[in-house]
Structure formats: C-alpha cells, structure tokens
Amino acid sequence: MRPGLRRPGVPRGQYVQKVEVDGPAAPPVSACTYSYGGAVRILRWLLTILLVVVLLVTGASVAYNLATSDPNVPVTKLWRGKFVDGTAYREWGSHGRPIVLVGGFLEPSFVWDRVGPILARRFHVYALDLDGFGYTVRRGPWTLQGWGDQVQRFIQALHLHKPIVVGHSLGAAIAVEEARRGVASEAVLVDGDALSSGGPPHFVRDALAHSPFLTTLYRVLPHVDWVVKKLLKNAYGPVHPKLDTAELQRWTDPLRAQDGRKALQGIAENGIPGFTSSQLHALRVRALVVWGADDNVDSESAGRKSALNLNAPFVEVPNAGHLSMLEDPARVAAAIAR
Question: What is the CATH number of the domain that holds 317?
Fold first, then answer.
C-alpha cells in the first residue's frame, strides 16, 4: 500500500503509514517462559537461604565447641564398682551356671538390675558395660570384632566356663558372636536381631563423625531433659518408671566418661555391628530370641526373622517395649532360665 492511501474499512481522514523493520520479527514471549524464569529465581533464593542457615548453624556449632570442652572424667571416679581389665561390671549370686549380660547402645549395666537378682537364684550372673558405654574404659575398636574380643577377655579373666551370653539390642550381635566363637554355650537375643542392616549410609555416618555437630550434640544433649525423656519414653514403651532428674542422670552420667566423644565418633563411623541374614542362617549355635511386643525401636518381624534364621525359639513379652528386661524382668528372666 502506498503511503497516503486509505485502507478499506478505515474511516475517512485516517491513513495507515507503512513502517518497514529490518530483520525477522521477534517471536512472542509465552507465559511459560515467564513461569520458568520465576521458578529459577525462587529456587536460587531458597538455596541461598539454605546456604546461609547452614553456615550460621555450622558457625554456631564451631563457636560453641571452642567455648566448651568434654567432661573427660576418668571412669574410676564415676563408678565405684568392679572392674576387670578396664571393663566395669555388676555381679549377682555366687554359684551355679554363669550368665553374662550385655547391654546395647548407650546402655549402662544397670539395665539388668531387675533381671540379675531373679536369675541369681539359680545362676551366677554378671552384667558388663561394653566399651564405649557405661563406665568401661574407652579403648576401641568399636566393632563387632572389638566388642567380641572384649567380652571374650572378660569371660576368660573370670574363668567362666561356657556361659550363656545374653545381649540386648546392639548387644544381641555380640552374644551371637560369642556363641559363634565357641566361648558361649548359648546366645540369647533380647530386643535385638543381630543384623548389621539399618542406619544411615556410610558417607553420612562418616560426615557426621567428622562434623562439629556430633561434638555439639555430645556436650548439649545430656542437659536437654525433654529430649532425653522423649528418647527414654520411646525405648521403654507403655510402662516406664518416673523419669525424674535422678532417673535421667542415671542414663546420661556415663557420657561424662573420659574419651566418651571419641568412642561415639568411632561407633558412628563403623555403623551397626552384626551379621547378614545368610550368615545367621549358616551358623549352628544354640540361641533364643526374646522380644517386647510393643517395641518401637526394632520391629518384632525383624526378631522373628532372626529367630527363623538361627532356628531358635521366639518368646514374646506382652506389654513391653524395647527395654523389656526393665519392664517385665520376671518374664524375661524366666525365658533366659528356661
């Protein structure tokens, strides 16, 4: 159309001026382009905030660690009881077949205080603190091999002949290990499946063990009563004692032991000790599995599976949680002494 000509349909007196533009016309900008760009900006904003939070929390953790120190109290000042080669232990009875009771993760030997006297009517009973827990000297290594060696040395030092070894939770794998070595005549697994499965991947455990956060948790957690209470309520299940200051201190006091943090770092690096299902199935040892019916820490199905693999009887303790030996000591003692 030539300039100055009126386009049909355009009112008289109005004209269209032709404008020529060099190059191709720009494509229209779609709504999804704006949406994608907005999402990227929001993601960058969120990542920036997350990075700032991580840096602030890490800085606070490092600063706290620099301003505080581990208790590092020698175990001989914390525990006035018996020791054998650095292993703290309790004893009930004076005659009969020997029984060795082994606790689990962060469990002092007092967890057997209600079972021990009942068993002592027929047996000579010992309860020990695994290296890393309770009042035993922290030496390491904190592995199935290391703990197996510790319990074997304890049995040999006291000249116990083929005792029954009872292990709770993490200690269940150590009980099986003693039976596998021929040191124990029988392994009793209480609320523990003796499997190495579970827990975070190795790279997560390694990162935690070498981060400042583990040090901070180790120093802070014993003083945060509501967290300790929550953990204990979950472990006890429906029946538990009054969780007052004295009871909480019973559980947290061993964390003051010398090299306590070093032990927890080693345990974090090594992960949960135990066997595979196929290894348990291949063992030819005498065993028994005892389980709290209301265990919220380890599932009953895991216990039944281990009993099946070991070709062992399974005894359920009604109305008991993960700490069944504290909740129903009579029934647990009866199962061990069967």
Answer: 3.40.50.1820
207 within some domain: no
Tell whether 240 is covered by a domain: no
- Cβ neighbors of 139 (< 8 A, separation 6 or more) are 86, 131
Assess if residue 10 is contained within a domain: no
What single letter denotes the amino acid at residue 216?
Answer: T
Q: How far is CA 272 from CA 171, 192, 205, 232, 266, in A?
A: 10, 11, 11, 20, 11
Q: Which residues contact 22 (CB under 8 A, 6 or more apart)?
A: none
Angle, helices 31-67/212-220, rounded to nearest 10 degrees:
60
Quick check: is 109 in a domain?
A: yes
How many domains does the chain divide into? 1
Provide the whole-model pTM.
Answer: 0.85
Alpha helices in 184-299, H assignment, sequence order = 202-209, 212-220, 225-236, 245-252, 260-270, 277-282
Sign of the Cα pseudo-torsion (115, 134, 168, 82, in order): negative
Q: What would the pLDDT profile of 224-250 be if each residue is shown by its tens digit?
A: 999 999 999 999 988 888 999 999 999
| Per-residue model confidence as pLDDT tens digits over 152-184 | 999 999 999 999 999 999 999 999 999 999 999
Q: How far is CA 32 from CA 35, 40, 46, 56, in A?
A: 5, 12, 21, 36
